[in-house]
Sequence to fold (990 residues):
Amino acid sequence: MGDKEEFMSRVNDLYRFEAIQGHLGWDQETIMPAKGAKARGEILAWLASQRHDRLIDSKLGELITKLEDQNHDDFFMANVREMRRKYDEAVKLPTEFVSEFTKARSEALIAWQKARSESDFSLFAPHLESMVKLTQQKVEYLGCESTPYDVLLDEYEVGMTVEDYDPLFSGLKKRLVPLLSKIMDSNIEIPRLPEDMTFHVDGQEEFCKKVSNAMGFDFDAGRMDRSTHPFCAGLWPEDTRFTTRFDEKDPFSCLYAVMHESGHGLYEQGLPRDHSYSPVGMAVSLGVHESQSRFWENQIGRTANFWKIAMPWFKEEFPDCPDWDFETLDLVANEVKPDFIRVEADEVTYNLHIMIRYEIEKLIFNGGLQVKDIPSTWNKMMKDWFGIEVPNDSLGCLQDIHWSMGAFGYFPTYTLGNLYAAQLLQKMVEDLGDIDQIIGSGDWSNMLDWLRERIHAKGSLMTPAELIKSATGDAPNPEPFLDYVEKKYSKLYRL
Amino acid sequence: MGDKEEFMSRVNDLYRFEAIQGHLGWDQETIMPAKGAKARGEILAWLASQRHDRLIDSKLGELITKLEDQNHDDFFMANVREMRRKYDEAVKLPTEFVSEFTKARSEALIAWQKARSESDFSLFAPHLESMVKLTQQKVEYLGCESTPYDVLLDEYEVGMTVEDYDPLFSGLKKRLVPLLSKIMDSNIEIPRLPEDMTFHVDGQEEFCKKVSNAMGFDFDAGRMDRSTHPFCAGLWPEDTRFTTRFDEKDPFSCLYAVMHESGHGLYEQGLPRDHSYSPVGMAVSLGVHESQSRFWENQIGRTANFWKIAMPWFKEEFPDCPDWDFETLDLVANEVKPDFIRVEADEVTYNLHIMIRYEIEKLIFNGGLQVKDIPSTWNKMMKDWFGIEVPNDSLGCLQDIHWSMGAFGYFPTYTLGNLYAAQLLQKMVEDLGDIDQIIGSGDWSNMLDWLRERIHAKGSLMTPAELIKSATGDAPNPEPFLDYVEKKYSKLYRL
Fold:
């Protein structure tokens, strides 16, 4: 076996272990019986160690070094590049450190759950301090060429640094805060759906599957199931599964979760199949993944033209529902309200929620902010930007799971997703013409084809920023997003 | 790490791969989207090769040899004994032979499906010839100390040979054929359920789950799903999953499938958890497994007293169903009819179906029967024993999947299951008293406890025959089964 073949064989094996972890993780979140949890945790830990052993094998390191100096096709060289990154990171972290981190994380997760449910930051604080300290240690192991927070940001969106994010976020803040305040001053009354109606789960399921199918999700190569928190997992070639949850009083909650997760699912279903079980065959980043989900959820789903198409499907399942017009539905789906919870936020306030997290993470890792001062810092920003007083930490700095998992640097990728989606939409309009007309035609295949060709089929051939540049002609930037929200919400709120 | 620890670590890893294969196999049969089949086949083949590489590792062989000469506790020594068997068999088969066999089997499976659907034996014959030839070669590789068929029988039920089976089957035939002919001559009219009734799937599911739960199946440590052919898989510690299928015209078909599979499931749920991921922690044999499923399906489920308990549950789901009395239901559930299809056979004819397959397999491997002569041999036996003419090979020698998979020697374990179940029932009555009264009380926990202690908790500590001897006091034999069927059916058919 030549070097090239041996490298690919090792990489494929590594990713087969990852795929099995993914499948058993999906099963755990959806259908596993309760008592199976202990054995599942054990087998997942075993799989992680099997994968890790293969990743830090010095023979793999030697192969990467050899192949880096050779010339092969772009897809192959992208695999070498990605494996270099993964290999270096893995060998830099001592095994004892990895287990210490894993252990601290399990404990922090449990403490966070308790702290959030009791809204008592002091229960979480010592664990958060550990996670911060261990993360600082991790940064040292990985080696820090610029600021410590840059090392963390790079983990979740390769190539993105504080220098890139700062102007993005300040640009957003500069235009979003005034927009928000204008919306708050407007006198638009948001209609309410009748409170006494109930929407049975079977009907919601049928309706949502019809929408997902119309988006192009292939149910012969995927599934929709239920879980506490919706998610999507591209388990295997031709087997992509997403989940949702149902609220009998609010059918829109499930709908937009399904459109969001189907957007992720379409990306997974469109990845280059010839490169399965290797990095270049995988989604390139969290930010780009989020751009696909947000595109379908917001730019397509939260429009009057979407409802023109979807309302008859909804009526098929719920013939007794009131005769809402499309404009009403559009307003209901796009209500703007400064509120406490990120995951329930509208398009205008969402990125401000992210920015609070970004600024606090930057302060922790680059500015010496103490864990004990997080709640007051958080609450002050909410007051300054949203104009609301955080009544308790459950509705404030305890709301998200990420820090308990040591996932510092993750949040900004959500904002990147929103920005990328707007950039893609702008370019798509240039290429395909009036988007409202396309949405209203009910045939969305040309939009999917466009995304397939420019995003999905590229896998991890380029870095995220290069991919966005190649797809839209522009580097990642906030202008298209700001133009989009200003135009959309000025019209909706008659500003 | 000492030898003992290294041995166990290797064994555990091997069985972790097996468990993953099991999980992905379960998923494939139940919920996998259609297009996922190709990737699933590939990953299962990869897992099989990962497992095989670990099994034939000479270091494992050395450890087994060392440990065989040492004294450790019974469970550990049973693991050494079982691994010796598996290791020896695996190293005796050349890798090329294993892949040739696997390839021929896939082709034979496809050919069999086509042959059966078109009822054309000639389409299957050349593939069946290959499977026979490869199996003969396998016997040579494994080494044959007595007859070739003995080598095959031993694969599926360790320790059982032609010398053991011949008297079992001739004993069965001697008393079952006259019993069958007396039943056929009787004038008992079997009542028919009304043909115009429909039993909705949700109600059947609720009812069947209630029955399974009453048997003791723990749904917090297991699931019931759907698949084309019902099966049970003890996937993980505390995660056992069985399947069923629904027929809206016939609620009993699903019920008895569920009782059968729940019986398998109870065995899996009762295995010694301290020995997970090692052979001694697994079910000891196909025959013993089948004894657990048949016990609940037939000895418990197909009785008037069972219906006394279950009818009110059935009525809850289907309040409009007629007021059948328990004796009527008993007769309906136990209709005896010489017919063509094994899987639909009653308790009296079932083992005669198995015996035909046993005799033909014996003739192929020990007597030189040619593949081309199988249909005529089969049809003659059906005529002689059942008194019926096989109209086509789909209803004859093409009905079962086993030969297409090269699983020669498997069928007799079904009969062992029936015999073991009757032996266990006989002993249980000695220990617990009148079984009809227990069934009619609705509290079946003492029966399950009895099986847990004597069968389930033993795992693979002993050989199947030793286990039956230790549980019942008697070696495997057909007398209790024959006494049981003669008594049961004489009463039902008033002979």
Notes: The two ends of chain A are 67 Å apart (CA to CA). The first strand of chain A starts at residue 222 and ends at 226. The CA atoms of residues 436 and 464 of chain A lie 28 Å apart.
